[in-house]
Structures are given as structure tokens and as C-alpha cells.
Amino acid sequence: MSNQLDKIRELIELRAKARLGGGEAAIEKQHAQGKYTARERITMLFDEGSFEELDMFVEHRCTNFGMDKKKFLGDGVVTGYGTIEGRLVYIFAQDFTVIGGSLSETMAQKICKIMDLAMMMGAPVIGLNDSGGARIQEGINALAGYAEIFQRNILASGVVPQISAILGPCAGGAVYSPALTDFTIMAKGMSYMFLTGPKVVKTVTGEDVTQEQLGGAEVHAARSGVAHFATDTGEECLALIRKLLGFLPQNNLEEAPIIHTNDPIDRLEDSLNEIIPDSPNKAYDMYEVIGAIIDDGEFLEVHSSYAQNIIVGFARFNGRSVGIVANQPKTLAGVLDINASRKAARFVRFCDAFNIPLVTLVDVPGFLPGTGQEYGGVIVHGAKLLYAYGEATVPKITVTLRKSYGGAHIVMSCKQLRGDMNYAWPTAEIAVMGGKGAVEVLYAKEAKASDNPEKVLSEKEDEYTKAFANPYNAAKYGYIDDVIEPRNTRFRIIRALQQLSTKKQTNPAKKHDNLPL
After folding, report:
1. Considering the entire predicted model, what is its pTM?
2. Does domain 270-433+470-500 have CATH number 3.30.70.3460?
């Protein structure tokens, strides 16, 4: 009996040792930097008492450079599963207290096991990244470990939601796993991402740059678009993951959970009847429109600091999760450009992969002109958004509020890209181009031949605007299904979503598409 008790005591002691990771001193150092340990983060993220840890006793097998004397139970990553709001989720959390969270062959095997389980069970996988990169002592084995993880990221893409939180350093090969996942969240002041660090940059290019300037949270959230979210603290980052998962299904074969709401379906929003300015060149705030029509004004914006001329994010209508894509007239007049096209295209494809209907709010004067855009490949990038909408088979509802001109009209989920319900407000202007530009092309000769060219063009502009800058021309051909009163927008979207809830549409059989990249 005592022998059995001794073995149980040994197990308890080993568990306690494993939970200490790199030891008390390393934990204190992590806390001194304002960072939590891997296990503390998991406790904050998961439902209380739901986490089940796996592979607690794994150790690395490296003997080079004295590594046989530096062994820790768990080997620098905590893996397992638990629940968030009662729903199954898999997780790996890198432990910076163990050899700087550096990736070894065995750490990669632990992560791959979790990803394989997530795929088999059809549940989301979350990665909490806090790692100094590949474990140099292991050489090619560490690189092979990264590649194994990346391969699983690729195969899981579009099958289960993948979320990456960056809660410390993430450099070199380590950055590719987050880049392959659906959403990347960075915590300001404590996280950074880059392929080559400041020292290498200095050596190769001569640039003096800090870690924060090179790959901090605000840089990636606002300039590169690598990060979808940037939070002020680690706690906020974890709370955001819980919130984000609430809008998503468990996998690509399921629907997102329906959340009860007391917000009436037929709530009228009279402010919308007056929100569009009389002058077509005057801006208004699209956030006011979004907030007015969605359930309880709750909108989870994605990429809020990046390409602000377009807004994307999650909301609910009558409890059902939707993806919203909306032009923002307050920024660059709502034009589409390279970054806005890429941002919206990826969001549209995510929603389509996970059965989340799309609601598109249109007020777009066109694409941003200029050599910067053309040399940067705006044609191909604009085609990504066009492609994403045309490929999507989820319910698609489009509401044109004001301008919808030229190629930008087509790209923003028009009827011919299989928009299911295309509505317009009475203020909608749907045409090849604005009146001024159109008459300069159509009546150039006539104006030139007259005594008062400006008067001719002005009169013709009024005629053109009256004839085409309205939704009825498009409605005449059935390209707009109905012209609706702005205050009824919420009700009409919800009715359309109810009607489309049994939509079945498939694309032609193929190995995969060839998206314009």
C-alpha cells in the first residue's frame, strides 16, 4: 500500500514541478515585465476548471551544447483543451520561462498533436505565442518542427477557426504560423513580430530601428495589416478571444451560435432617414449606420486601425452572427484602394468559409487613382475583393446608401456577383461614374463648340444626375431588388436573412481555385 502511495506522491510532485515551468525566478521575471505565465493565461481564457492539460511530462531530446542538463517538464509549451462559454476549444500556450519559449522538436510535436485533435473533433484552436524563436541548439530539427506546424495551419484553414495571440516576442520562422491563421491579436507594449530583428536590419540595410518600430502591435495593426487586433493589455487580448469566438461556429460544417436578444426585429431608426447629407461631396459616419441597424449596437470590428476607408467586422441580426463590410465616407471618401481591397477580401473569404452571412453597406465613389496604386498592383488587389464576393456562397445582402460607381459598384457585392438581396436607399446613385465626369466625356465636343462650355456642362450634368444618380434605373432592370426606406433597413435585412437561412449554392467542382494573389 505504501509503495502505491509513494508513486501517487511522486506523481503529485512531478505535476507541481511541471506547473512551475522554468522555475520561481523565471516566473518572477515574467511577472516583472507585466506578463503572465502560459498557465495563468489559460486560466484567464477558459471557463473555470475546464482546462485539461496534455503532455505535461514531455522533455526535449537534445544533447548538444549542454542541453542534456537543461530539461524541463512540458518543454516550454502548455497544451490541452477546455471550454469557452461551454464550447470545446484546443490550445497551445508557449511558456517563456522555459528556455525563452524557444521551439524544439518535442514542443512542435506537442503543438501538432493539439492541432490534429482540433481537426478531428472540429473545434477551434488557439495559439498563445510568447517565444524567442527556433531553439538554435536543435538546428534543423527545430526548423522541421515549425514546418510541421505550418502544414497543419494550412490544412486546418477554412475547416476550424484558428486564432493567434502574440503576448511576447515572435520572430523569424515563428511569425508564419500566426500569419497562416484566421486572426492575429497583439498586445501593445509587450509583443512584436518580425522576420529579421533590428540587429540584422542594421547590418544589411544600415537602418536604426527599435523592436517596437519594426514590429510592434501598433505598427502591425495600422501599417502592415499583419495584426487584426491590438489590445492595451494581455488581459484584454484574452477577453477579446472569448468575444470573437462567440461570433464563430465550431467548424465549417456548423453555424455560429444564435444569441438571444431583446432588440426588436422591427425597430425603426428614424435617424437614418436624415443621415445622408444633401451634398454628395459631404461625409457622414458609417459607424452610425452600422450601430443603428445591428442587435444592441454590438459590433466587433476587425482591422479597425488598418485601411480605414473600409469597415469590416462581426455583428448580429436577430441573434444571428453576420459579417459586415461597409465603405467609410469619412476616410478617403470611402474609395477602394489596395489595402482596403485586401482587408475586405480576406474577411469575406473567412465569413464564406465558416457559413457567416455577409451584409454589405455601399457608398463608394470608385478606386483610388494614381501611380502609387497602379504600380502597387491595385488591379490585382481589387480583383481579390471581386473574386471573394463572386466565390462566396453564403447569404449575401447588399444595401447601397449613396454612391456606387463604376468598377467599385461591381466589386461591392453587386447582383451579378450572386448578391441574393440587393437593396438601395432612395439616395443611392448607381452609375458608371459621377455626373461631372460623365458629361465631360459625353458632351466634350458639344461644350467645346458652344459659347459657354461651363453652362452646357452644368446643364448636362443636372440632366445626367436626374436620369442616372438614383436607384430606379438599376431597379428597372432588376439589379436592385427593392428601394427601401432607410429607417426600415434593420427589418428588411433580418427578413432577408430569415428567407436565406436555407440557401444552398455550390461552386463548380475543382481541386482549388487560383485566386489573384
Report:
1. 0.94
2. no
